[in-house]
Amino acid sequence: MGKTMIAANLAMGLANRRRFQVIAVDFDPQNMLRLHLGGDLSDGHGFVGLFEKAGNWGDALRQDQKSGVVTLPYGQLSTKQTLATDGILAQRPDLLWKPLLRMAAAPDMVVIIDTPPGPSVMTQAILPYADLLLTVLAADTASVVLYGDIASGKTYSEVKSERRRYVINQFDPVSRLGKAIGQGLTDKMGQSLLGKVHRDEHVTEALAMQQSVSGYAPSSRAALDLNLISERVSHYLENLR
Length: 241
Prior knowledge:
alpha/beta, Rossmann fold, four-stranded mixed beta sheet, globular
């Protein structure tokens, strides 16, 4: 549903406004966040290799040359190693949230986390400390069900309702079903909806070029939508100060 694209472009949008320092963290073993921000795909370094070694997480930070955004990659582990890491974090979630909270404690620092799809040990570990939970939904029937679960507290109950926000991605106003579902979700979400990102071929083109959408096609509809969402998130965060 475009969660990684939204996370990457939000990080870029906030960094460009220079109101905050931004670190984009990848919780997804697929390591796709760096692909959106011009990262080195051959670089296997990341924070997951530092749990058992008690290493300095600052050593895993990378500043992407194209975007200028600082990222904390997941790293590269085998499936066996990933499961072992999840087992460690299930017993010691503080090994994850404490270093991240130390990073976020710096003045004007914003830590944006791209979480893996579905339930995960890492997501559960950090949710109680989130200032904002931004859920990306598509204008389809599955998203209607997911929104209902989140709004009712069945999913992500660790985050208070006033800290939950939503984005509708790949919105197609030409599709009758998409338009109807999008309007229905908009009515239900009210002020918690930060915006809609319209379906736009520039999004996939930007990914192919390893650029943010605003960097690749700043005048595109998707770029304008993403900029508006970044501005609204910026205002939300400023109100937390």
